[in-house]
Fold this protein.
Amino acid sequence: MTARTDAQLAFLAEADALKTVHRATTLHDGSRSENSAEHSWHVALHALILADHAGPGVSIDRVIRMLLLHDIVEIDAGDTPIHGQHDTAEQEAREQAAADRLFGLLPADQGAELRALWEEFEASESPDAVFAKSIDRVQPALSNLHSGGHSWREYDVTLAQLEQRVGTKVARGAPALWTRVREMIAPWFTAHGK
Amino acid sequence: MTARTDAQLAFLAEADALKTVHRATTLHDGSRSENSAEHSWHVALHALILADHAGPGVSIDRVIRMLLLHDIVEIDAGDTPIHGQHDTAEQEAREQAAADRLFGLLPADQGAELRALWEEFEASESPDAVFAKSIDRVQPALSNLHSGGHSWREYDVTLAQLEQRVGTKVARGAPALWTRVREMIAPWFTAHGK
C-alpha cells in the first residue's frame, strides 16, 4: 500500500504545476490571465451546474472526472489557445509524451484507467466526452464575455470564427446552451463590427 | 429553460471570483500564494487519485462534488487559515450569509440540493464528508512539505499542533494516508526543532 500511495502522491505533487500554466483567457475582472488549474475547477463546476443540458446517457460524474484531468498534459505541453495558430501534429506529439510521463507516475492500473479517460476526452466521440468538450469550450467564451472580450480582441476574432471554433463544439453536446450563450455574446461582436 | 439557464450562468459567473481568494499555502514552487479555486481543483483531484483510501460506503463522485463546492462561500467570507486565530462563530455567520447569497443565485431546487451538500461537508459527519475533510486537510500539509514549510514557518507550527489541527482530521477519514504523510512530514519538524 505504501508504494502505491507514494506513486499517487508523486502524481499529485507534479500536478501542482498546472497552477503555473497560463491560458489566453483572463479572470472575469480582467486582472490577470487564468491558469489551467483554476480553469479545470471552473469547467468541472460548469458540468455540475449545467448538467440539465447533457444529452441522454451522459454521466455527469464521469464528465467531471474527465474535466479534472483534461488539461493535465499542459504541465509539459503548454496551453494551446483556441483562437491561436499552432501545428496540430506537433502539439499532439507533445501531449502524448506528456501523458506518457504524467500518467506513468501513477500505479500502473490507475495510470492506464485515467489515461483512457483522458484519451476518451481527446477523441470527443462518446456522449460523456462530447458534453465535456462542450463545457470546456463554453467556459472561456463566457469568460471573454465577462472580461469585455479579452481574447476576442487579442486574436481579432469574428462572430463567424467563434461560431466555427467554439459554437459548433458547444452545440454538439449542449445545443440549447449554445443558443442562449450565443444570444448573450452576439451583441459584443455587433458593437465591435465583427 | 432560459430562465433556469440564466440563473445557472449567473452563479457560474459569480464563482469566477473564487480565483481571487488567497490562501495561507503557496504553490509547491513557493512562487505565490495558492488561490481557493485552484485549491478546489487540486483537492478534487486528490479525492479521485486517493480513492483507495476512502472507507466503506464512500461515494468518490459525491466527495468530488462536495470538494468542488466546499470553498465557494469564501467568495464573500474569505479564507480562514488552518493555523491562524479566528472567531469561529463570526466566521460561521459570514459563511452562512455567503451561502444564502451564492446558492440563492441558482434555480431554487438546485440551490437547495447543492447547499445541502455543502452543509453536509461542513457538518463532517457522513462518511462522504469525513473523507472529503481528510482530503481538504491533507492537500495543504503536502503543499507545505513541498514548499519548504511555508505556512508552518509563518504560523510557527509544531508537529504536535499539526497532529491536532490536521492529523486527527486526515486520520479520521484516511488513517493509512495520514500514517504515510506523517512519516514524510515529521523530518521537517525534527530538523526545525519543532
Q: What stands out?
A: Chain B is about 70% helix and 5% strand. The beta strands of chain B are 22-26, 33-35. The two ends of chain B are 58 Å apart (CA to CA).
